[in-house]
Amino acid sequence: MAYLGNPAYTMAVLEKHGFHFQKKYGQNFLIDTHILEKIIDAAEITKDDFVLEIGPGIGTMTQYLCEAAREVVAVEIDTNLLPVLDDTLKEYDNVTVLNEDILKVDIASLAGEKNSGKEYNNGRPIKVVANLPYYITTPIIMGLFESHVPLASITIMVQKEVADRMQVGPGTKDYGALSLAVQYFAKPEVVCVVPPTCFVPQPKVASSVIRLTCHEKPPVEITDEGFLFRVIRASFNQRRKTLANGLNNAPTIPVAKEDIIATIEELGYPASVRGETLSLEEFARLSEALKKKVH
Ligand code: SAM
Description:
By secondary structure, the protein is an alpha/beta fold. It is built from 12 helices and 9 strands. Strands 4-3-2-5-6-9-7 form a 7-stranded mixed sheet, sandwiched between helices. It has a two-stranded antiparallel sheet with strand order 1-8. Helix 6 links the parallel strand 5 and strand 6. Helix 9 (about 225-235) packs across helix 12 (about 280-290). The N and C termini lie far apart (about 60 Å). The site of S-adenosylmethionine has 22 residues, from strand 1 and helix 3.
């Protein structure tokens, strides 16, 4: 197999196809074979697995995925990369490249959840692996979780700062809506930190590979997941404000101010409590109590 992970080969492929990087698509291609191997190892892919790759680029990681998995679907937005991928993936018959925007594609239909005629994995959990375009990291992750497609794990390269935010708990400066959302759906573990020199062109920031092992069922019981996330978002929208003010200023939480304050106090917090001190369990309790006061 001609691994594309090494810099010389990557440059040769780019030159052969006269490829020009598009900044707007967050194109930073991996050129370090050790990091590629680490990603594949961390994702624990076997020949039974169906893997969704987001943004294959020139197919560097896709090759590794094709070798390891049963089937790979790679979603790439940049039409200019299609002839490159045709060339670099020509040895593999277990890969499908879709020229789509991952934020618009119906993930459930890819995974065979809906009767779309593309029964890729018959509703069995899939693995997602990606070196993500950093400009849309959060919407991609939330889109995957909220699709409710059965997911085993999501192993991704993200900006280091974003990986840090995903795994911290209450009371730290990085703690916020992303930490809570990720931890509601999965267990996050940083695999390694990756310096800019491992990419072409080099990004301005350090990166991390993080594995999100998806929970079979969320760690907290909740009757209305959408409402929980609205409460969480409202609580962090205005970080310097109290929890009560954040919730009261959010049009998505139709609860009277006096009911918000009463609920906070009934749960045993002072009226001046801030959202960043509450754990996921505490947000779940708050959300259930507020739901009963919706007017
Ligand atoms: N996987 C390759 C690698 O590791 O070298 C490329 C990673 S690069 C950071 C991100 C890739 O995502 C690019 O190929 C880019 O064109 C693609 N991309 C950007 N936005 C996208 C979107 N909305 N949907 C699908 N792919 C997208």
